[in-house]
């Protein structure tokens, strides 16, 4: 009779192989950044649920919380020296759900569904733009030949900022500035497509990666006061602060492009070969 379930590792050779395949114990520092990323994914999926239940205030808070965790997981990984290819792939998939799918669902449930198929096409455009932006970002990580000053910039609006800015109409609706409806849906549709185009554009935007690594001693106490003040404002007036932050970010997008051009011109001038008039004269031949 044929044994349908033969024993695994029946002999000494199998025992040795079993010891070789034994799962190694991983230190907690390698797992912690991935846990932060998974918490961010849970927050983004919760935002989708809140949108389906028409609880848009909690949905926006969930997306913003996912953006905060997205900014932390990479820093935690670098701080603990636990960066990995698995963590990078997980982070990209999480960002697509949190900042590509969730904002689109929120906008569709809030007002874009009044446009029926057109509104859903707008959601698809925004989500695809977020996916393309993340794919381009992952490819750019392999480019090691870029100048050091370019690390201060992203190409296009980053997906977390694009998602939060895309939710600006819902913030305005929660503040009573606008009302959802067909006329509002038409404006929101154009605005959502514009945010998607900004994410996949070549517009240089300030990244802030190197911001806050060093703080002057005389600015420590004022920095504490400003952080507490901003935190208190966000707790007391969250949607007013989200609206103000989105408007300020969009208004300062041209400043990033101008700064990029200045740095690029300075870098090009530093690597430009000197003209014959500027080159030093050759020393006279030795006697």
Automatic annotation (TrEMBL):
The keyword Cytoplasm does not apply. Residues 219-254 form the CDP-alcohol phosphatidyltransferase C-terminal domain. The keyword Transcription regulation does not apply. GO terms for biological process: phospholipid biosynthetic process. It is a multi-pass membrane protein. The chain crosses the membrane at residues 26-48, 117-135, 156-178, 184-207, 219-235, 241-260. It comes from the Bacteria. Keywords: Lipid biosynthesis, Lipid metabolism, Membrane, Phospholipid biosynthesis, Phospholipid metabolism, Transferase, Transmembrane, Transmembrane helix. It catalyses: a CDP-1,2-diacyl-sn-glycerol + L-serine = a 1,2-diacyl-sn-glycero-3-phospho-L-serine + CMP + H(+). InterPro entries: CDP-alcohol_PTase-I (IPR050324), CDP-diaglyc--ser_O-PTrfase (IPR004533), CDP-OH_P_trans (IPR000462), CDP-OH_P_trans_C (IPR012616), CDP-OH_PTrfase_TM_dom (IPR043130), CDP_ALCOHOL_P_TRANSF_CS (IPR048254). Its EC number is 2.7.8.8. One of its GO terms (molecular function) is CDP-diacylglycerol-serine O-phosphatidyltransferase activity. Belongs to the CDP-alcohol phosphatidyltransferase class-I family. This is CDP-diacylglycerol--serine O-phosphatidyltransferase.
């Amino acid at each position: 009779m044929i044994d349908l379930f033969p024993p695994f590792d029946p002999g000494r050779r199998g025992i040795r192989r079993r010891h070789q395949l034994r799962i190694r114990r991983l230190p907690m520092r390698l797992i912690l950044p991935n846990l932060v990323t998974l918490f961010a994914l849970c927050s983004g999926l919760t935002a989708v649920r809140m949108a389906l239940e028409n609880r848009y205030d909690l949905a926006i808070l969930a997306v913003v919380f996912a953006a905060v965790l997205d900014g932390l997981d990479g820093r935690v990984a670098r701080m603990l020296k636990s960066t990995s290819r698995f963590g990078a792939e997980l982070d990209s998939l999480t960002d697509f759900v949190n900042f590509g799918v969730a904002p689109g669902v929120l906008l569709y449930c809030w007002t874009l569904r009044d446009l029926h198929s057109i509104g859903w096409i707008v959601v698809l455009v925004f989500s695809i733009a977020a996916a393309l932006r993340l794919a381009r970002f992952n490819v750019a990580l392999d480019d090691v030949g870029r100048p050091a000053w370019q690390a201060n910039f992203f190409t296009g609006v980053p997906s977390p900022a694009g998602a939060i800015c895309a939710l600006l109409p819902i913030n305005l609706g929660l503040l009573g500035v606008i009302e959802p409806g067909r006329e509002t849906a038409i404006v929101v549709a154009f605005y959502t497509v514009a945010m998607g185009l900004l994410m996949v554009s070549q517009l240089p935007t300030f990244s802030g990666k190197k911001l806050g690594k060093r703080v002057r001693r005389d600015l420590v106490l004022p920095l504490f006061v400003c952080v507490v003040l901003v935190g208190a404002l966000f707790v007391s007036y969250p949607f007013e602060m989200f609206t103000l932050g989105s408007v300020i970010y969009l208004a300062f997008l041209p400043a990033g492009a101008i700064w990029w051009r200045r740095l690029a011109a300075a870098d090009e001038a530093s690597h430009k070969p000197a003209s014959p008039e500027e080159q030093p004269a050759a020393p006279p031949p030795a006697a």
